[in-house]
Amino acid sequence: MKKKGFLFFVVYILVLVGIGVMAVTRAGETSRRKISIYKEATPEDGTGQGTETLQEVLHLTREAEILEVAELPQKQEYNGLRLDDNGMPYAIRINRTLNIVTVYSLDDEGYYTVPVRAMRCSISLDDTTPVGLFTTTEKRLEWAFLQGNVYGQYAYQIHGGIYFHSVPYTENKHDKLETWEYNKLGEGASLGCIRLCVADVKWIYENCLPGTQVYLFNSDYPGPLGRPQQPYTFADVSETGWDPTDTADGSPYEGTAAIYGAEDHTIKIGEPFDSRTGVMAFSSDRQNVTDRLMVDGTVDNQIPGEYKLAYSFYDNGKKIERDIFIRVVDTEAPVITMLPDRLYLAGYHGDKEELADLIARNITAYDNEKQIIQYRWTPEKDTTEDAELVIDLSRVEDIPGSYEISCYAEDAAGNRSESYTIWIELE
Questions:
Q1: Which of 185, 215, 248 is the last residue of a domain?
Q2: Which CATH number do you get for residue 177?
Q3: Per mean pLDDT, which range of 91-100, 161-170, 228-237, 357-366 is the poorest?
Q4: Is residue 90 located within the same domain as residue 23?
Q5: Are residues 295 and 311 in the same domain?
Q6: Mean per-residue pLDDT of the chain
Q7: Active-site hit among 121, 165, 197, 407
Q8: Phi and psi torsions of 378, nearest 5°
Q9: Same domain, yes or no, for 50 and 90?
Q10: Which of 80, 102, 105, 225 has the fewest beta carbons closer than 10 A?
């Protein structure tokens, strides 16, 4: 293992020219450029004086043609249009791709950018749930008859036939919840409306006034609070049931305190995460006491590993607890953005470490936006926890000639960039 260090000094001057090796830009245009490299005189004879004359230094000067690789698209963090203050306390964004509803309050500049609450939802299986900006209407019903000959709680009109409402019921009774549909929260399942668990849709119903902006859009970015987990999963979906987050009288969960939405799951490195997202607490008398919920533990979404979170609250003096584990994994391959395409070098004497150092100095690569500074010149993986450039010099012999080598970047999780070919001309 070597860092791009100081095995010997190489100075390179970047010169933009009209010919050379193709560079591909994001726009698809091409340009070419070269660099000049030379080896500096270094004191190696014990006298403190350089052993190489100026002529010898100039003799070592050669051009290396540099290839700039087309950069991969940046991670999309599109979160919809900027929503301006329209006099309402909140605005709502609905990510159709990921089935996430996120509520925002105003920032100091008058925009709805401060995340308040993220909720798991179900939009339509097709494109019936529209894209666009709407404002909620005055039409709100605690129970509504819905398309498909079913019923929903806390129906709140967004636009036309598109409503917020609970998961459907076969009758307008709290114990007639379609359990098989409830388990689909987080995926497309509705006929166009926005389905949520009772606690979440009730919060919107009670806190978001008519005139609240609702923006529906598509994105792979879950939002600043991350992805809420399933609030509850019914083991038996052959019968109707009762939403455990529904605090109406007669709940079969009466007498049981519980924490919902806290589940073991995996996130990708860099993915937004908030330990409170989607997690709710209910007392034994079936009151929503999420504001009393305590969380012990942290998750570093930039470092792969397994993290423990401990949730707890007190119910009539008894501590109610639930522990979960969040696994952060690295699935993003490193990216090489610049490397030599063809390198000319005089005075090579078979030192592969020196050759690898020269090549590595002229490669730019990133792993999760962090520049890669380490390299190795054999394909065999070592035990480093850092990403490395892999410069395969196995085909290079100790005599002058033209050699083809391969180069790629690899991170500690084993993710690899695309492999590139570099031609080396040794004189």
A1: 248
A2: 2.40.440.10
A3: 357-366
A4: no
A5: yes
A6: 84
A7: 165
A8: -130, 145
A9: no
A10: 105
pLDDT digits (tens, 9 = 90+) for 176-225: 999 999 999 999 999 999 999 999 999 999 999 999 999 999 999 999 99
- In this structure, are residues 10 and 359 in contact, taking their beta carbons and an 8 Å threshold? no
3-state secondary structure of 183: coil
How many C-beta atoms lie closer than 10 Å to residue 65's C-beta? 19
CB 188 within 8 A of CB 61: no
What residues have CB less than 8 Å from 63, skipping those under 6 apart?
Answer: 34, 35, 36, 37, 344
Residue 200 amino acid letter = D
Q: Of the residues 59, 159, 174, 193, which is catalytic?
A: 193
Active site residue 349: no
Is 139 a domain residue? Answer: yes
Q: Which of 257, 225, 262 minimizes the C-alpha distance to 95?
A: 225
**In-domain check, residue 110:** yes
The helix (H) or strand (E) run that includes residue 313 is strand 305-315
What is the tally of structural domains in the chain?
3
Contact yes or no for 338/69 (Cβ under 8 A) = yes
- Cα 296 → chain centroid: 24
- Same-domain status, 17 and 55: yes
Closest CA to 192 of 136, 128, 101, 99: 128
Q: Does the pLDDT of residue 150 top 70, yes or no?
A: yes
CA distances from 41 to 7, 57, 62 (A): 13, 7, 15
Give yes or no: 208 in active site: no
- Give the structural domain span for 318: 253-329
